[in-house]
Structures are given as C-alpha cells and as structure tokens.
Amino acid sequence: MRKPRALVLTGHGINCDYETAHAFNLPEVGGEGVRVHLNDLISAPEMLRDYQILVIPGGFSFGDDIASGKVLAVKLRSRLLEPLRAFVDHGRLVLGICNGFQVLVKLGLLPNLQGTCAQDVTLTFNDSGRFEDRWVHLKVNPASTCVFTTGMDRVYLPVRHGEGKFIPRDAATLATLEARQGIVVRYTDSDGQLGGYPWNPNGSVDDIAAVCDPSGRIFGLMPHPEAYVHRTHHPRWTREDLPEEGLGVQILRNAVTFARTHLL
C-alpha cells in the first residue's frame, strides 16, 4: 500500500526538519516524510502534486528577522502562493509547527476566515519577555473540525519559542474564529482548567495554542508534536510508567490516516 507523503520544508534556519520527517516515517504514524529545501520547491513548485501533506517545521527561518516567520511568509507569498492555494484547493493538508505556525498566520493561510489569505491574527512576543522552553498541558476542542486532532482530548507537549502570543485582529475576529470552531487547542493547567502563566507560557488571548482554517485541513500550533513521539522524550520518562508511544504521534497519524483515506 502506498504511503501518504509529507513534504517537510527545510533550509534558511528551519531546524526541526529532521525530527519532523523522522516522526512521519515512524511505523506507528505510517507516512513518508521527505525533507525538501525551500529553494528546490520554489524552482519546481509542481513537485507539490506528489505530496498529500505539507509541513513547515519549527526553527528560526531567516533568523526570525523583522518578526518570527515574517521573511519566510513574504517569500512564500511572493513565490509560491498560487501553488500553495492550489495544493489546499485539492483537499490536501498543511501543518505549521511553532515557527511554521508563525509563517502560516503571517502568510494568511491561517485562519483565512475570509478565504482571501489576508492576515487576521498574529503571533508576537511572549508576555514574559523571554524565550519559553517548557512542557505544557493542552486541551483539545472536541467540536473542532481539525483533521489533525480527531479523537484527542488532553495532550502534553513541549513549547520553545519567544514569540508565541496569539492575538486576533479584533474581538470580531476572535468571535468568528470561535463560532467556526477554529480554536483547536488551548493551554490549561495540569487539571485541565484554563490558567495564567506559566500554564499559558506566552499570554495568548483566550489561552489559544492552536487554530485551524474553516476546512480543518490547515493546522498551526505552537507546541511541538514531533518532539514527543517516543517515551524517552518525556521529561519524566525515568520516573513514570509511560506508554512507548508519545502523545505527538496521534496528531501526525491523524493526518496520515486522513490522507490515506481521502487523497490516495
């Protein structure tokens, strides 16, 4: 059986591409993760036709000059926007992790409430004024249309970012995002209740950690699912009885399962 293929973008400061491709290649995920340099994709955008999933991983693309993800977003808009829109229009999946999430919102693919790729939200400097590197508790919205979180409830994943504060353009944008079930994941405390810092590590409005577009097929999140796919990734793996499979696996497996069912 042919495996769904995930194009994992790399180059120019992206630095979680190996881990992300590795995660998609795990037998329990069932995909084929292929690292592709941004320059190669710009030179041959038709290669997108060979993939069912596009992933923009975490890192510091273009050194996060101007603002996190901004330069890469501008480059994608100027060189690849139409191929990317065609990719999405054909029912395929897009995942942005951390820096990739920052890129997608500044590109306008997320949450894309009007369908025009206008920027409706942003991700900016943490309220703490510093880089936050910690593990966070997350609650999945059961009503969300997001393909990537199907069947999920509570998740524990690491964050590592300096500009992860989610801010909508205005109250109306937030209301629309919520009404359309575009808020996929929120930061919580260890009991699953919404809380302030450090549970919400960046001060995101409404404790938002992840959103999707109206189709549920474009997903961006600040936590790193690829950083918890093995038991030994957990910070307390020597002290707790944990399953062999990390909680990030299900997010990626959901994408692969959807692609296998609907796109192959």
Descriptive notes:
The protein has one domain: 3-Layer(aba) Sandwich (Rossmann fold), CATH 3.40.50. It has 6 helices and 11 strands. The chain has a 9-stranded mixed beta sheet. It has a two-stranded antiparallel sheet with strand order 5-8. A hairpin with a 5-residue loop joins strand 10 and strand 11. The longest helix has 20 residues. The mean pLDDT is 97.
What keywords describe this structure?
alpha/beta; Rossmann fold; 6 helices; globular
SSE arrangement:
Blueprint: E1 5-10, H1 17-25, E2 32-37, H2 38-43, E3 53-56, H3 70-89, E4 93-97, H4 99-107, E5 121-124, E6 132-140, E7 154-161, E8 165-168, H5 171-179, E9 183-188, E10 208-212, E11 218-221, H6 248-262
Parallel strand pairs: 1-2, 1-3, 3-4, 4-11
Antiparallel strand pairs: 5-8, 6-7, 6-9, 9-10, 10-11
Helix pairs in contact: 3-4
Major beta sheet summary:
9 strands, mixed
Mean pLDDT score: 97
CATH class: Alpha Beta
- Which spans of ≥5 residues are poorly predicted at pLDDT below 50? none
Number of strands: 11
Helix-strand category: alpha/beta
- The gross shape turns out to be globular
Tally of separate helices:
6
Question: What is the CA-CA span between the terminal residues?
Answer: 10 Å
- Cα Rg: 17 Å
The CATH topology is Rossmann fold
How many domains comprise the coordinates?
A: 1
Topology order in helix (H) and strand (E) letters: EHEHEHEHEEEEHEEEH
For the record, what is the CATH homologous superfamily label? Class I glutamine amidotransferase (GATase) domain
Question: How helix-rich are the residues, as a percent range?
Answer: 25-40%
Strand order of the largest sheet: 2-1-3-4-11-10-9-6-7
* CATH level-two architecture: 3-Layer(aba) Sandwich
Strand content: 15-25%
